[in-house]
Amino acid sequence: MEILERLPEGPQQPCALALGTFDGLHLGHQAVIKAALREGESPLEAAVFTFRRSPSGERLVMLGTDKARLLEEMGVKKMYSMDFSELKSMEAEAFVQEVLFARLNARRLCCGADFRFGRGKAGDAALLERLCAQAGAELAVLSPVELDGEKISSTRIRQAVSAGDMPQASRLLGRPFGFTLEVIHGNHIGGSKLGTPTINQALPEELVFPRFGVYAAWCRVEGERFYGVCNVGIKPTVGSDRVLAETWMPDFSGDLYGKEIQVELVEFLRPERKFDSLEELKAAIKENGEQARALTTGRQ
Fold first, then answer.
1. Tens digits of residue pLDDT in 10-24
2. I need a surface site. Which of 101, 147, 150, 158 has the fewest CB within 10 A?
3. The pTM of the whole model exceeds 0.70
């Protein structure tokens, strides 16, 4: 998949363009993107127009690298990943005509019914319908996807993640909540003193923080999946100056420093707590390992 972070200067191949911030790529977002894909029904290249950060300023449900990976897996050929500040002052009609039609060569637009665009969010589906009709372009406006009688939204997912309700977040996303981040050096206590070597990943400030505590998890390492125990927080027993995801994979051994590893949080096991000794912490980690093994068995 081709990723462009600037508007192209030259002519582009005619495309079916999905529009939205797509933070999280939840089930509602996937419906919009599938409308652009329409495999076998159209010669148009499937593309996505999105923003690197949410215009609302909310913390992200999904990091950019994970968004790009999932879009590519879905079959999207091109992603326009824009900086919202560079386009927010454009009038709605100019944005459609000068950017979407003229620069990106969109011949079919796909969006959710609540999609807004242009200066002051003045543009809506009704304006898109008029402009598409004038330009001879197609328009697909998708109704909201609901779960439990309520619209699926990134806000609902952020609330679930912040509460540690990973099963609910997973239902809304259509897959487990997770992140792909570089493995960094920690304090090396897990391997040397506890017998439970871990990988450490620093959670960036722009990502929604899961409820601090211990989770059953899945980890993807070079194409293989390993179950794990992931502690999210500040490690109160041994101390940390930033929010970390520290994960122990009982069935894995090897050096992962500097590599990007995907971690998916399956279920909350217990809150973060400070133990009186490393021996007490070791016993708790071992117990959580057994819990994680039981919870992930059968959840492939």
1. 778 999 999 999 999
2. 150
3. yes
